[in-house]
Amino acid sequence: MAENEDGSEKTEGASSKKLQDARNKGNLPRSKDLSSALLLIVAAVTIYATGTLLVRDLAALFDFNFIVERADVFDLSRMIFHLYVSVVTMMDSMLLMMSILAAAGIVGSIALGGLNFSWEPLTPKLSKLNPIAGLKRMFSVQSLVELFKSIAKVTLVGFIAFIVLSYFLPETLGLTFQSIQVAIANGIDIIIWSFIFVALALVLIAAIDVPFQIWSHKEKLKMTKQEVKDEFKQQEGDPLVKGRIRQMQRQAAMSRMMSDVPKADVIITNPTHFSVALKYDQSGGEAPILLAKGGDFIALKIREVGNHYDIPVIQSPALARAVYHHTEVGDEIPNGLFKVVAQLLAYVYQLRNARTGAPRPEVMPDLDVPDEFRWDGS
């Protein structure tokens, strides 16, 4: 089982964040054997498909270079011309094959792990120059596994190649007694079949290597339980820190709310459990706004601030509970409470005007809260 540097066991699978970080660093499962097998198979198929064209061009090229006038041999410009024509002819013949093989090489390299681009592997690291770390990598378990894999691959591919060459040896030796065009055609057939058999050997190796690389990659990225906890804290935040932040936010919000209480036109109480402070802008407000609300201790503080600033404090349990449970601080009161709040504000304004000599209202209006806004405590 994988272990961390401190000896703790890595028993947990890699998180999505660790997988993404590894991908950003270019750390992906790759299989060189898969790329090699695909490249050989595509090469064999391409040679087989374009064999006729290749044989024709090669035969023409041999004729062009072996049938040379004596004067051309001593003329440097003619020799350069021969070289130029030979290169152009071969480029025309090999361009399609080279393009297909280049595409196959790219596909083979990204077939496992997908396409990814990262500058991280190119970044110079002084740790790579540490000879002690280099020796550890050379004699690590991973290096030994790779060494045995390489020996096994060379042995298998060499054995298959030996069988194929032994089988085609008579035909290969017979090419010297054939005409150029026939020898080229038969030689290409031998090459194609050799590619196919060697590629099949690499396919077998790739079938073993691909699952191993996937498993090895997952094992390397495994995490300890502590690493999982630490990552969760980094992403979600330490519960103690988050709790402290929420407490500070509540305190800041409470402070702002209490600072708005002196602006209220009226405070409605339960009378002990709830208090709400309302403000109505007569110059253009559409509806009264809830400046502050609170229960128990906060309700008491709202009443104390209201008494300190000589704000009318009205006892109406049903209306206080309705506003408290159906309105958030800073929002307008619901439409269904417009009428009853308007009656209360009219009464408050009459009380305020009575201080300047206007008639004082005798009785507070009956504040009838609609049934849908009544709160029974359930």
From TrEMBL:
Classification via SUPFAM superfamilies: EscU C-terminal domain-like (SSF160544)
UniProt keyword annotations, A-Z: Bacterial flagellum biogenesis, Bacterial flagellum protein export, Cell membrane, Cell projection, Cilium, Flagellum, Membrane, Protein transport, Transmembrane, Transmembrane helix, Transport
KW ATP-binding (keyword) present: no
Coiled-coil stretches: none
Membrane topology: Multi-pass membrane protein
Chief location: membrane
Pfam families with a match to the protein in the record: Bac_export_2
Keyword hit for Magnesium: no
Bilayer-crossing regions: 34-55, 94-119, 147-170, 190-215
InterPro entries, alphabetized: FlhB (IPR006136), T3SS_substrate_exporter (IPR006135), T3SS_substrate_exporter_C (IPR029025)
GO biological process: bacterial-type flagellum assembly; protein secretion
Subcellular location: Cell membrane
GO terms for cellular component: plasma membrane
Region (Disordered): 1-29
Domain of life assignment: Bacteria
Protein family per UniProt: Belongs to the type III secretion exporter family.
Reported function: Required for formation of the rod structure in the basal body of the flagellar apparatus. Together with FliI and FliH, may constitute the export apparatus of flagellin.
Protein name per Swiss-Prot or TrEMBL: Flagellar biosynthetic protein FlhB
Originating organism: Marinomonas ushuaiensis DSM 15871
Lineage: Bacteria, Pseudomonadati, Pseudomonadota, Gammaproteobacteria, Oceanospirillales
